Amino acid sequence: MTEHRSSRRKKQAAATRQDILVAARKLFASRGYAATSMAAIASEAEAAVQTIYDSVGPKHAIILALVDTIEEEAGVGEVRQRLAQTSEPRELIALIVGLSRQFTERGGDVFAAMASAAPTEPDVAEAWRKARRNHLAGARYVAERLANLGALESGVTVERAADILGVLNWGTTWQQFTQDHGWSVDQYEAWLNETLATLLLNNAT
Fold this sequence. Notes:
By secondary structure, the protein is mostly helical. It is 80% helix and 0% strand. Helix 4 runs antiparallel to helix 6, helix 7 packs across helix 8 (158-168) and helix 8 (158-168) packs antiparallel against helix 10. The N and C termini lie far apart (62 Å).
């Protein structure tokens, strides 16, 4: 009976946390991070403010939790595994591009909220820098894999390849093309795959 109660409490706590994250995500997207209060999140989630602190934490902890949620939804772990397993240069590029597409489609609202809040919110700024560091680390990893496979174009260093991957495949670049310039995600993904192959890979690949 005690184990049953404990299991039920854990499920209820997980459901409450999920309700809070869904509510916060909706408000961050519609109002912006700075304009969203903890009280507003509590009202939207139909929970007490203290429950939010107990379940997730302060507001910056909520957006960090949302980033973790998006990474899970985008299948980051699976993509990392596939990146480590493949030895096909074009597939390496397609995998890292596809991951950014997943982030854009599934988490563009959260990253837009982070980008707008980062200049004035130190905690969000640190989260934004962390996301950027993780992205650049992924770009560097792919660049090193391409180099080890002998696939990089003559004169293209690992550093240059990582820079190109890091900029063209960054979420804000995706959003500039798809939101500001009206490209579809299919169009940008196809263009990016071909452009990166042209810029980075030698004729042997």
